[in-house]
Design goal:
Number of strands: 0
Low-confidence stretches: none
Order of helices and strands: HHH
Number of helices: 3
Strand content: under 5%
Largest sheet: none
Shape: flat
Oligomer: single chain
Radius of gyration: 38 Å
Amino acid sequence: MQTSTMLTLQITLVGMGLVFATLIMLAGFLALLVRFTTRTDKRLTEADQAELERRRQAAIAAVVAALAQEESMAAPRFPMPPTALVSAWQAVLRSNMLNKRGAVR
């Protein structure tokens, strides 16, 4: 009984070790692939910088316009209706009285 448990644990450990080793190798392969396939030209020309600045300003303008539109689209506040001539408890009492009398033809 003891040997079968030990064998099971050994098989489990070997399997887990293989899975984690494969994951680590895959991560290393992806890191190497990214390192060798990325472009290293990080110098920006003045035209590129101007284009980036123009896009940044366009994004800022779009956000400001969206916020202004959202603010103007807010639901208008309507004034509260005037209070009823009959309070709620009076309405309940009157309806109870009508219910006691029964249906009117």
